[in-house]
Amino acid sequence: MRTRLAIRLLSLLVALPLAAAPAYAAGGGGGGGGGNSGGSGGGSAGGGSGGGSGGNSGGSAGSRDNNATITKCKRGQAWNMRRKRCMAQQSGMLDDESIYEAGRELAVAKRYGEAITVLSLATDKTDPRILNYLGFSHRMQGRVLVGLGYYQEALIQDPGYVPAREYMGEAYLQLGDLGAAREQLGEISLRCGTTCSEYSRLSAQIGLFLKGGGWSPPEAASALGASPEDAL
């Protein structure tokens, strides 16, 4: 109960500076609406690519240069998708779609501090994709409750954004709250069934938790052979 209350309070703290944020520009990647299509379509690395597929409304898949921030840019820089070059991680230097892509790449590469720096530059701070990876990056640096606050805010913006529900379920497992993690698994199944990648990953994590291993990063769960059936 205390954990749930703390999450609500942190969600409010996350939401306060977002209240004055502008609506997501039509050309910026369709973060809110894109989340639904991304969630139902599953996702790739990190569980957040559901929103990434939704982001194609702002820039087609063909215009992307996968992992360009990691492979082409120096530290302190990020790939600008519109200008096709590396630019400083500073306000006004990157459009929101470039910020999302760079932040996602950095988070998946475990460069969490940099990911937070880049994602915090977004003009639209209500984009559930941005909020989701801010939550992920904070959580992976040990600030689990802060991460949960960001996930909660992402779901306020788009309740159907299942990548945030997957990560929220993982966060609950980190806190030892199996019941809350299962609730999120159920919410995911209602939105994209039991075959989407978000469901599979979270159910594998729950299965590993039930085997007594506690929470582990997704790659560890896969290596240990946890399966979706273990979560039931």
UniProtKB/TrEMBL annotation:
Gene3D superfamilies given in the database record: Tetratricopeptide repeat domain
Signal peptide: 1-25
Entry keyword annotation includes Transferase: no
Keyword DNA repair: no
Pfam families, alphabetized: TPR_19
Biased segments, Gly residues type: 29-61
Region (Disordered): 29-68
UniProt keyword terms in alphabetical order: Signal
Name this protein carries in UniProt: Tetratricopeptide repeat-containing protein
Organism from which the protein derives: Neomesorhizobium albiziae
